[in-house]
């Protein structure tokens, strides 16, 4: 029998790509999203790509009764939990809002899962839980924290809550996926990242410079101890990331307990290298200025991918040029986002 996966935050950037891959892998998908940072139009786009219109609930994870209804109306085998706020800077100015949504909302979800005996969970964590790592590449057994902002702390707390839950309720099977820097878009150009307002992240910012919405890219610091002085990150294609979730769900079904796995490529690229790759992809010059470092940024962050290969049988396959080409296709085909 087909398994049914509840995807919270399923109309968002990573969630929508994961729904496409889940459907194509033969799962039934139920999406729950309050549409805070995404549009209902994403559902039709998923249908265009897969031929399946996923069942959708416009529900907030803070709404315990609403959650209960979703669990009562569907026979769920597992949950992939993407729903949350993710803007690092905003989390510094609105910590309570972030903790309310990312912690209280998640607690509601875990409580509802327990009540309805849905024990398989994949949680969207982040490389931000490692804080400023002692060295790179980063392994899963590195020390966690201290984090540098409430968003990061909300991920670290969720991980701890889930470790405690796993100890107390051994029937749970939980996979913590620590994403590095997801970029790119589905090859169709139909779904991708739609930033709200001025983008915080590098790729959406560069894409908006390329399309003429922004004048130039501010490169945050050129005096890091990296080959060209600019920050180095592990950029991973969002479709590779989505495929990692399919493997993580399969892993969760076959075991009990809790485990954490990095999802990255294992390769670091600097800000200037990304700018150059994007220029190549879009055929336009990206104007840039070197400015001061951004507070809280670290020099280098990239994954050790050994564990993902060993326990999930997964590794990323798309290269940086493909990531930039797919980002550009989505940006140029959807200059005003996904609203139809
Ligand atoms: P996104 O904002 O595109 O998607 C999150 C979705 O959750 C949105 O559709 C939003 O409307 C929904 N949502 C937010 N609060 C909700 C609530 N209370 N109830 C129901 N729905 C709610 O973000 P994304 O980039 O797809 O990220 C997905 C997850 O991955 C997040 O948990 C994020 O913290 C984590 N993550 C993202 C990155 C990244 O760089 N994009 C890196 C590491 C981890
Ligand atoms: N950068 C610029 N200019 C910009 C934006 C970014 O130079 O306008 C630089 C940053 O200084 C950094 C690199 O580009 O060196 C990447 O920055 P992002 O903001 O795109 O990504 P971060 O690595 O800072 O953080 C991202 C997510 C976090 C997540 C983390 C690890 O935003 O939520 O990856 O997964 F926790």
What structural keywords apply?
340 residues; 14 strands; 40% helix; binds uridine-5'-diphosphate-4-deoxy-4-fluoro-alpha-D-galactose
Strand order of the largest sheet: 3-2-1-4-5-6-11
Number of helical stretches of at least 4 residues? 11
Oligomer: single chain
Overall geometry: globular
How many DSSP-defined strands? 14
Main beta-sheet annotation: 7 strands, parallel
Q: Name the structural class.
A: alpha/beta
Query: Low-confidence parts lasting 5 or more residues at pLDDT below 50?
Result: none
List ligands, each type once: nicotinamide-adenine-dinucleotide, uridine-5'-diphosphate-4-deoxy-4-fluoro-alpha-D-galactose
CA-CA gap between termini: 34 Å
Q: What is the percent of helical residues?
A: 40-55%
Topology:
Layout: E1 4-8, H1 13-24, E2 28-33, H2 41-50, E3 55-58, H3 64-73, E4 78-81, H4 88-93, H5 95-115, E5 120-126, H6 150-168, E6 173-179, E7 181-183, H7 202-210, E8 217-220, E9 232-233, E10 235-237, H8 238-253, E11 257-263, E12 269-270, H9 271-282, E13 288-291, E14 300-301, H10 306-312, H11 320-333
Parallel strand pairs: 1-2, 1-4, 2-3, 4-5, 5-6, 6-11, 7-10, 8-13, 9-14
Antiparallel strand pairs: 9-12
Helix pairs in contact: 1-2, 1-8, 3-5, 5-6, 7-9, 7-11, 9-11
The chain binds nicotinamide-adenine-dinucleotide and uridine-5'-diphosphate-4-deoxy-4-fluoro-alpha-D-galactose.
Residues 86, 88, 126-128, 179-181, 200-202, 205, 217-220, 231, 233, 271, 294, 297 line the site of uridine-5'-diphosphate-4-deoxy-4-fluoro-alpha-D-galactose.
């Amino acid at each position: 029998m087909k398994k049914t996966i509840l995807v919270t935050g399923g109309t968002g950037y990573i969630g929508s790509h994961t729904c496409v891959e889940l459907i194509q892998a033969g799962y039934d998908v139920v999406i729950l999203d309050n549409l805070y940072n995404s549009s209902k139009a994403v559902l039709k786009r998923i249908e265009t790509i897969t031929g399946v219109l996923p069942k959708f609930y416009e529900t907030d994870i803070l709404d315990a009764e609403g959650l209960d209804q979703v669990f009562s109306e569907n026979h769920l085998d597992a949950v992939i939990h993407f729903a949350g706020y993710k803007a690092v800077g905003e989390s510094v100015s609105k910590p309570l809002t972030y903790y309310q949504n990312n912690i209280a909302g998640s607690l509601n979800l875990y409580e509802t899962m327990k009540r309805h005996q849905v024990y398989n969970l994949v949680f969207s964590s982040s490389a931000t839980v490692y804080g400023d790592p002692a060295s790179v590449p980063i392994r899963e057994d590195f020390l966690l924290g201290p984090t540098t902002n409430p968003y990061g702390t909300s991920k670290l707390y969720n991980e701890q809550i889930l470790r405690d839950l796993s100890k107390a309720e051994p029937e749970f099977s939980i996979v913590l996926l620590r994403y590095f820097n997801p970029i790119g878009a589905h090859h169709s150009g139909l779904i991708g990242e739609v930033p709200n307002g001025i983008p915080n992240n590098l790729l959406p910012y560069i894409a908006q410079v390329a399309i003429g919405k922004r004048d130039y890219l501010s490169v945050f610091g050129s005096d890091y101890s990296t080959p060209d002085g600019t920050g180095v990150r592990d950029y991973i294609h969002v479709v590779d990331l989505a495929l990692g979730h399919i493997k993580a769900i399969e892993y969760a079904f076959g075991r009990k307990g809790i485990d954490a796995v990095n999802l990255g490529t294992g390769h670091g690229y600097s800000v200037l290298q990304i700018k150059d790759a994007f220029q190549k992809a879009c055929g336009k010059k990206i104007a840039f200025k070197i400015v001061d470092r951004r507070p809280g940024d670290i020099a280098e962050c990239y994954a050790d991918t050994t564990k993902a290969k060993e326990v999930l049988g997964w590794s990323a396959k798309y290269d940086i040029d493909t990531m930039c080409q797919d980002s550009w296709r989505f940006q140029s085909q959807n200059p005003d986002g996904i609203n139809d």
